[in-house]
Amino acid sequence: MSSQPGYVTLPILTVLAAIGYLYYTTVFVVIGEWLGIATAAGLANAAAFTALAAASLVTYAMAVFTDPGRVPASFVPDVEDPDSPIHEIKRKGGDLRYCQKCSHYKPPRAHHCRVCKRCVLRMDHHCIWINNCVGHENYKIFLVFVFYAVIACIYSMVLLLGSASQNLQKDQQPSGDSSRTSIIVCGVLLCPLTLALTILLGWHIYLILQNKTTIEYHEGVRAMWLAEKVGNVYRHPYNLGVYENLVSVLGPNIFCWVCPISKNIGSGLRFRTSYDIPLSTPPL
C-alpha cells in the first residue's frame, strides 16, 4: 500500500479493526449479555458508547485526511519585520532556516518530514497510525481523537469489569465459548491500549501547557543543557502562560475545546512569543 499521506495503510486498517472489534464486543456481548440492549440501562449505555465510538471514528478519519499545513513555496522571512521578534536560524552557520529538499525557507516551528517529503507548519511528529504528519492544521483534531479514544476505552473497561463482577457474584459464565473468548480478547486488548492512549494524552496535555511540540521538547532539552553549561537560563520563546497556551491550540471558545471543527488560530507562519507579552505579565 502507498505510504503517502491520506492513503489507507496497514496501521490504519489495524486501528479501524480494533475500533470495530471493541465496539462490537462492548455493545453486543458485554452490554447485551449483562444488561440487555432492550432494557433502559442497556440502551442508555449502548447509546452512550456508540456516541463515543462514532466521535472517535470521525475524528480519526479527520486526522488521517486533514492536511497538517504545508509551507507555501513563496514564503520568505522578513528579517526587518518589527512584529516578528524571532527568526529561527540553523544550528550551524546561523543562517535562516532553508529546506534544500523543498527549495524554500522554513518559518518558525516548521520542519521537513522525511516520510511525507514536505515541510509541515508547526510540526509535532509523523504518526504511522494516521499515515500523516501532526502539524498546525490537524494537531487539535489529533488531540481530540486521542481524548475521545481514551474516554471510550475507559468506558468499555468499566463495562467489562462490571459484567465480569456480576458473573462472579452469581457464579456464572458468559453464555457460550465464543462470548467468553470475545470478552477475554477484548480485555487483553483494552488494558495496554488504554494505558498507551492515556500516556499519550497526558504527554500532549503537558506539551500544550508548555506550548511545545514534541520536536521542540527534545530540542529544548539540549538547549537547556547548553544554556546551563555557560551559566544562562533557557526560556522557551512560545510559552505564553497556561491559559494562552491552551487557547493557541484549542481555540478561544472553551466550549469548543473538544470539538474538532473549530478553526485554528493564525496561518501557522508566525506565532506569538513571550517577547510579545508585557513584562508585567510573565508566562506561568
UniProtKB/TrEMBL annotation:
It is an enzyme of class 2 (transferase). It is found in: Membrane. One of its GO terms (cellular component) is membrane. GO terms for molecular function: protein-cysteine S-palmitoyltransferase activity. Residues 95-218 form the Palmitoyltransferase DHHC domain. Keywords: Acyltransferase, Membrane, Transferase, Transmembrane, Transmembrane helix. The keyword Transport does not apply. InterPro entries: Palmitoyltrfase_DHHC, PFA4/ZDH16/20/ERF2-like. The chain crosses the membrane at residues 12-31, 43-65, 141-162, 183-206. It is a multi-pass membrane protein. Its EC number is 2.3.1.225. Pfam families: DHHC. It catalyses: L-cysteinyl-[protein] + hexadecanoyl-CoA = S-hexadecanoyl-L-cysteinyl-[protein] + CoA. Its main location: membrane. The DHHC domain is required for palmitoyltransferase activity. PANTHER family: PALMITOYLTRANSFERASE ZDHHC16. Belongs to the DHHC palmitoyltransferase family. This is S-acyltransferase. It comes from Ananas comosus.
